[in-house]
Specification:
Elements (H helix, E strand, L loop, with lengths): L2 H13 L16 H15 L10 H10 L1 H18 L1
Length: 86
């Protein structure tokens, strides 16, 4: 066994087995299905048509702020799907 293997085994004995850590965050601007859903809900309940371009982050932020429950549920669905996949 070479020197590096011995160092790794010594670290495992002292520190315990390695763990896996990941951080996730949302990027609603790139989730087109969420933007379309939020826009549809806004149009339906507010009664006026909202125009959103691809780079219109101000209107998208307002949609997310006004309907954070839908965004949270979609994020939860994506995380559950990811965990099932992994």
């Amino acid at each position: 066994m070479d020197h590096l293997h011995k160092d790794v085994f010594a670290m495992i004995r002292q520190l315990g087995p390695p763990t896996f850590f990941m951080t996730f965050s949302t990027c609603v601007n790139n989730w087109l299905i969420v933007v379309k859903t939020l826009k549809s809900l806004y149009d339906q309940y507010i009664g006026k048509k909202l125009r959103i371009k691809n780079d219109d982050s101000l209107n998208i932020r307002e949609l997310v702020k006004n309907d954070h429950i839908t965004c949270a549920r979609y994020y939860d669905h994506r995380m559950n799907s990811f965990c099932k996949f992994i």
